[in-house]
Design brief:
The chain is of the alpha+beta class. The longest helix is centred in the N-terminal third of the chain and has 11 residues. β1, α2 and β2 form a beta-alpha-beta unit. It contains 8 helices and 12 strands. It has one domain: Spore Coat Polysaccharide Biosynthesis Protein SpsA, Chain A (Alpha-Beta Complex), CATH 3.90.550.10. Helices cover 30% and strands 30% of the residues.
Length: 209
């Protein structure tokens, strides 16, 4: 999956990525060493104690603080999303953040997004006990300095629980209808083995077959 993500980043024109290391750090380092000629330069930040997704961003904020926008990817998401389209939407609207969203069968396990007719995010609730809808955060997002401004000072902290709820009405949602699966569970990992369509490259970049 890391190879897939590096290919995706290269197609987006991303020149450098930062990978948070904790579990299986040696395996990740070995892979990066074997693929050091990648078109994307890779930095690593190892956390002996996990800081959480927002804590990692806060600890490395100087790395992206001068960028007008930056991508945040949850690496256990396997997808065929139109990220170029998502980037275009973000540049047109210039929100504090743009979230990839998709419909899920069990929203209580996800960050649930409420949007209006213009796809402005009006509410965000992480793993609600009583979800009001089934539109969920896909783990694909574009951030800006406005997002960095609301990062909590404490760690561990989480993007879904501690950051996105602070940006209501300041974010855009980008609906994803293409293949997307979170392989963070063993069940979904096995499902992905059977359903992942694979990637190919054509004149428009890298797309699913």
């Amino acid at each position: 999956m890391l190879a897939i993500w590096l290919n995706v980043c290269a197609e987006l024109g991303v020149s450098e990525v930062l990978i948070n290391l904790h579990a299986h750090a040696d395996a990740v380092r070995k892979f990066l060493h074997q693929n050091e000629r990648s078109h994307v330069h890779v930095r690593v930040a190892e956390e002996p104690e996990l800081l959480g997704s927002a804590g990692t961003l806060a600890a490395n904020r100087n790395w992206v603080s001068k960028e007008n926008l930056f991508w945040i990817f949850y690496a256990d998401v396997l997808h065929c999303a139109d990220l170029s389209g998502m980037l275009q939407l973000h540049r047109q609207s210039e929100p504090a953040a743009t979230l990839g969203v998709y419909e899920v069968p069990d929203p209580s396990r996800c960050g649930v997004v409420t949007v209006n007719a213009q796809n402005i995010v009006q509410d965000f609730v992480e793993k609600p006990a009583n979800p009001t809808g089934n539109l969920a955060f896909a783990g694909l997002m574009i951030g800006t300095p406005k997002l960095l401004d609301v990062l909590p000072a404490y760690a561990p902290s989480d993007i879904g629980s501690d950051v996105l709820p602070r940006l209501k009405n300041q974010m855009m949602a980008f609906p994803i209808k293409d293949y997307l699966i979170d392989v963070g569970t063993l069940e979904n990992y096995h499902k992905a083995q059977a359903t992942w369509p694979g990637y190919k490259r054509d004149d428009h970049g890298t797309v699913c077959t």
